[in-house]
Amino acid sequence: MSTKWLFNLSTAICAALIWVASGTAHAAEVTVMATQAIKAAFVELVPGFESSTQHKVSPVWVGEIMKRIKEGEVVDLVILNSGQIDELTKLGKLVQGSRVDLAKSGVGVAVRAGAPKPDISSSDALKRALLAAKSIAISSGSSSVYMVGLFQRMGIADEIKPRIRQIAPGLAVGEVLARGEAEIGFQQVSELLPIGGITYVGPLPPDIQNYTLYSGGIHTGAKAPDAAMELLKFLKSPASRPAIVRAGMEPSDTP
Question: Which residue from 37, 52, 203, 228 lies 20 to 30 Å from 187 (Cα-Cα)?
Fold first, then answer.
């Protein structure tokens, strides 16, 4: 075995080890704290991101995200409604200019599986359904803020107030409906569709529909900011649009 051959073999092995080490060094774990509203699309899309980049994504699905981030919890990426992302940015918790708008979701209506489907074809029909309902479930998220205001504009807020059940942050209205603890429920469409034991009736009528825009931002204390931005760009890419639509959402650039 010649000295030259051994030298070439040694050089090739070293190059291979350097390549492997380089790939490992660039792979990162991206910690994400995100709203349940984007969970279905996120869970479908992340494996493709991980296989194409070698990064690992570690999501945390919790309630009271704003509170946790404000109190100092650090992750790489935060996904919330755009107003909350802007607020956290102003507080110095997220990197200025890192916001990426991902998708928007309207408010949907659901009932327990097997229950009669109420008429929600118009705002007047929905109003009649609300007045007839024995119990009404709303979330603690952005949809609940809108629904409370809508009840007031409809002039029925005082009448239906004793029948409204607002669930705790991070919980699903659909699960309350499935257990028979409410007759009709309202939440983001993307949060209702994955729940078993319910019937999704449909979105609010167009003239009273409200869309929430969901965005991501990089935490100022992120350990893997570059990988987190890669993930945001992946979620924003045209290839991700079908999964977003399947989850009951619309791409952020949809009129």
Answer: 228
Give yes or no for a contact between 56 and 224, defined as CB atoms under 8 angstroms apart: no
Query: Global pTM?
Result: 0.84
* DSSP string over the chain: --HHHHHHHHHHHHHHHHHHHHHHHH--EEEEEE-GGGHHHHHHHHHHHHHHH--EEEEEE-S-HHHHHHTT---SEEEEEHHHHHHHHHTTSB-TT--EEEEEEEEEEEEETTSPPPP-SSHHHHHHHHHH-S-EEE-SSHHHHHHHHHHHHHT-HHHHGGGEEEPPTT--HHHHHHTTS-SEEEEEHHHHTT-TTEEEEEEPPGGG--EEEEEEEEBTT-S-HHHHHHHHHHHHSGGGHHHHHHTT-EETT--
Ordered domains of the chain (ranges, CATH):
29-104+212-251 (3.40.190.10), 105-211 (3.40.190.10)
**If we measure between CA atoms, which residue out of 107, 111, 243 comes closest to residue 188?**
107
pLDDT digits 0-9 by tens, 88-132: 999 999 999 999 999 999 999 999 999 999 999 999 999 999 999
